[in-house]
Amino acid sequence: MRAAGHRSTVAHAIAWLLGALLLLFLAVPIILLVAFGAAGVGDAIRDPDTIAALETTFFTATSATLIAALCGTPIAYALSRVSFRGRSVIAAIVDLPLLIPHPVAGIAILLLVSRDTAFGSALLDMGLRVVGTPAGIVAAMLFVSAPLYISAAREAFARVDKQFEFVARTLGDTPWTAFRRVTLPLARRGLASAAIVTWARAVSEFGAVVVLAYNPKVVSVLSYDRFTTGGLAQALPIAATLVLVSIVPLIALRALRYDRSNEAVS
Which among 110, 164, 246, 251 is least buried, having the fewest CB atoms inside 10 angstroms? Predict the structure, then answer.
């Protein structure tokens, strides 16, 4: 019995040690980045190139998030509530972009929207150029972040008891009215969390964006550009600024989860 207890204690200690090592590996590089780059953040956010990159990043990430929410919410609801032929195929298509390396994702989108393709040529005829424009950045951000929104929104709808919808239907509501008046309000915090995660993912995207639109630069591309042209010292303030920006949605997520836990307790 003592030997078994000793082995259990050793295994427990090793498990905690391995977990602590992984946490350190995740935390220390970010801490070092902020510590070494923080001194230059003030100058960075006054730099016209950084200001322009931040504006472009916020605008395109917000646009991608709004499109993901508008188009992805019906998909998430259908995957959560409706049984139909091909449901697993739709779910696989939604998840596929998460498995593709992001530069490859950018190349895949380029095959659709470049001027040499039928679709890209049609867009040009309508006066819409995607490659090398904010539209290209939005397309890249949307491709890599929309699956996160759909997945999180699907979970938010799944947490809403179907009985509430059923009661609303028995009281005369149409399916759309029941969704709008019952399901959507009950899932709103989960949907808000999904949108925040989507926005944060869009802001941090680099690989797909750099293929479709190196210019105008978003913050991640500007950081890479400064690194390749001026070295680590030039890139650090921009990189630290991006990390600090990324903390904002993290705080918002924690606030939403805190409110949800308080609601559950009450």
Answer: 251
